[in-house]
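for the writeup, i need someone to sanity check this before i put it in the appendix. the sequnce is what the collaborator sent (i think, or maybe the updated version? ugh). structure was predicted straight from it, no edits. if anything looks off just tell me and ill rerun, i have time this weekend
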Amino acid sequence: MNNNQLNQERINKLLSEIIDSNIDIQESAIYELGELKIESVVPNLVSLLNNEDTNLDVRWLIVESLGKINSPNTVEPLMSCLSNKAENLNVRQAAIKGLSQHISSSKILLSLLQFADNEKQDIFLREKVKYSIANNLKQTIETKNKDLQEIKDWLETLFTKDSVTTEKILVSNTRSYSTKSSNFTNYVNRAKSLNLNNQELVLIIDCEIKDDKSIILFLEVLPQPNKGITILPSGLRVTFLSPSEKVLKEAKAKEADNRIVLPIPLKIKQLQISLAANKPFKIKVSVENDSYTELFPLG
């Protein structure tokens, strides 16, 4: 018998126990189903919740367990408990707790906001909802910022040691440039001075961390700002190559261009695989018969 069969047998046993006449067995089964967070048991819990003969303490525990299951199917029964003025106060508060744990869902957030704005509802519960929304949004933002910072710290380790922050090279350049400061939570960048075919240039590698934790790599080349040069050499190329040197993306400077930017969407997993295999991608900047190649990422 495989693990899936064993797990299903356990779930079936728990589902039979939630209607057991022994309240201790019943409550223990309801609690465990909530801890398992299995969406398929939601209809069974809701059916028991809607049963008029269900004990008040059991109703409260059902709502607590529904709140632990991150499923769109829990929204309606939880909102029904919250909105029902005849419902026990503790049960309604448990519904608030369950709903607010999943306010990343726009459907749940909208439902809670509508309740908080309904003057016909209990003022205590409305304030409780507002507090829960604010508190959980704060926690969500803090978690997101922590995750972004961890990714940013990791990305900082992937550049060659002789590269510097963009600001150090462009500090004398008064014009605005496309890359963002490394002080931004979701940006990491490095720059390097190049001399190709007697042309003083700057290569900027700018990593933008997206909300889905993917990355956009912006490769930018511009004239060295402190040399008084404002135009790139015509025909300059920026090429992004796979570890096997297959051209993945390329951009070419036109006449009178003062910069060139090549965006590369990447997944963190791609960089992790590249590092593990010690097979970095290649960033190539070329002017006529002269070129420079940067390896990325480097562990």
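The two ends are 44 Å apart (CA to CA). The longest helix spans residues 123-156.
thx in advance!!
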